[in-house]
Fold this sequence. Notes:
Blueprint: H1 7-10, E1 11-13, H2 15-24, H3 26-46, E2 51-59, H4 70-73, H5 83-93, H6 96-106, H7 120-127, H8 139-150, E3 151-155, E4 161-168, H9 171-228, H10 240-275, H11 283-287, H12 289-308, H13 317-409, E5 416-420, H14 433-459, E6 463-465, H15 502-506, E7 518-519, H16 521-530, E8 535-539, H17 544-559, E9 564-568, H18 574-580, H19 588-592, H20 598-601, E10 603-604, E11 611-613, H21 620-624, H22 630-640, E12 643-647, H23 653-657, E13 664-669, H24 676-687, E14 694-696
Parallel strand pairs: 7-14, 8-12, 8-13, 9-11, 9-12, 13-14
Antiparallel strand pairs: 1-6, 2-4, 2-5, 3-4, 10-11
Helix pairs in contact: 2-14, 3-14, 6-8, 6-9, 9-13, 10-13, 12-13, 16-17, 17-18
Amino acid sequence: xxxxxxxxxxxxxxxxxxxxxxxxxxxxxxxxxxxxxxxxxxxxxxxxxxxxxxxxxxxxxxxxxxxxxxxxxxxxxxxxxxxxxxxxxxxxxxxxxxxxxxxxxxxxxxxxxxxxxxxxxxxxxxxxxxxxxxxxxxxxxxxxxxxxxxxxxxxxxxxxxxxxxxxxxxxxxxxxxxxxxxxxxxxxxxxxxxxxxxxxxxxxxxxxxxxxxxxxxxxxxxxxxxxxxxxxxxxxxxxxxxxxxxxxxxxxxxxxxxxxxxxxxxxxxxxxxxxxxxxxxxxxxxxxxxxxxxxxxxxxxxxxxxxxxxxxxxxxxxxxxxxxxxxxxxxxxxxxxxxxxxxxxxxxxxxxxxxxxxxxxxxxxxxxxxxxxxxxxxxxxxxxxxxxxxxxxxxxxxxxxxxxxxxxxxxxxxxxxxxxxxxxxxxxxxxxxxxxxxxxxxxxxxxxxxxxxxxxxxxxxxxxxxxxxxxxxxxxxxxxxxxxxxxxxxxxxxxxxxxxxxxxxxxxxxxxxxxxxxxxxxxxxxxxxxxxxxxxxxxxxxxxxxxxxxxxxxxxxxxxxxxxxxxxxxxxxxxxxxxxxxxxxxxxxxxxxxxxxxxxxxxxxxxxxxxxxxxxxxxxxxxxxxxxxxxxxxxxxxxxxxxxxxxxxxxxxxxxxxxxxxxxxxxxxxxxxxxxxxxxxxxxxxxxxxxxxxxxxxxxxxxxxxxxxxxxx
Length: 713
């Protein structure tokens, strides 16, 4: 290919010559632009003017705080509609029903603008079959179609404002249509609310009748159960038995306290009498009238004796009489103390009896209250059901009254209002004569200039020889011929050895093996290691049966501790399937088709430490279109692995040439070395310069799936 030259490298574009064509043909360019501008000006002048007007609606709640339903008053601060709902209102405004009503009210079908006449361009499109014939449609469909073409309804971004815009040749119609559409939309909203209100009323009336019956039945069940269970109510919300139990408990507490007090008073008097201590200061003694008189007499006698003792001796009759009276008074006083003690003991006994009776009554009421509380559980359940039915009935009655009042007073405001009505435009928005003419002139100038430059470029006049380029005569430029079949050895010279055969170059001390020598799998693995090969290409002329040899070699190399990758380039994918037990993994075809990365296509051998890239699942034809990426992929794999084993299947020397490079060992996987196919492929490789081809034969040894020395987990 030394005689081949690239035209792209031999010539350059002469920019001066290229853009000089604009100066040479400027008159033609200007005339063309002026003609186009004149045609655009004439069309703009003759075109029917279009007028446009718009009406703006605001989506908002029209209810006041006084007329809003009670259930809505708590949600008054929440937004009326979300973004999706407002966008939906845009579709409602432009719906066919509203447009049909507006077209009928304004009698648009009678206007020429909405007639069946079509323009010349539309007629040409209909003639070519690129458009439907509007005259074949009904009048209503035709009017609706034209209205949709002239109508634009959109929402102002970030607001609840909807714009209805319409264009027409008649300025009054341009304003009348959007106003009519807005009014029709508000009418539709009011009718929708009216229909919803009517439906609610029709549903509520029979539902309320049923609820009233259910409320009566629920309240009757409550009354019947209260009577059957003897659950009479006392003061407040508690039952009669509960109130009686509370009162008896209070009385029992009071009696116990009184009994304790009486017992303490009696014990104090008893101890005083037994010990002889004075008891005159005790409250019970002081409160007895007779005791008080005896104490006064005792004090008087003691005072008289003291007065007489000053003048009389102790044996004096008056002194002894006073002593006798004092002793008698003391005996009477103690007798009265005994009476007080017996009175306290009687009160104590009565208090104990009252306490026992109250305790019996309390225990009886406890049993009665426990039974009543069990019955009250069921009673409360019935009351809750009745209360729920009653609350639902009251809610429905409130809603019915509100709905009926709104229907009677016809107060159902739409949630939208027109805040900007369309007015009759006085200036047409289309066509704009000056902008259209200027744009046509600029576009024509640009188009003519580009056409001139392209014509100059393709004519070859804008090309010049590249600096340093030499041109040979046409007959001397010869394309490389395809590879010819090798001539017989006796008539053709021996081909020049290829430098891509690595084993001879890396390890010259090891003599190359003749193509007719066969070695075992173990010897092939040892030879690849000893010669330092980084890539081993296996050719299997006999098909998938011989392809198992490369699998065994790759596993032996992995068992030696090398980082080995097995790449399956066969059509059937049988070698890699035996290593993965499935051919449905992503592989080299997916990598070539850019459907996967390296990490997605590299898998582990089930029976060794060898890594495997199978054929893959992508379309083979798509992968073959990217076959030029295969050498780059192999080079990347060589940087990550010690040895890459490539199984090519029954290929020829041309197939090996695509993936062979220096330090590549080419091996033949054979079963029968005498097979004619094996001899032909060996001769082809030899004729193509591969003199170090080694034949590897597994004959005479077992071909297990698992490599030697490894167990299948």
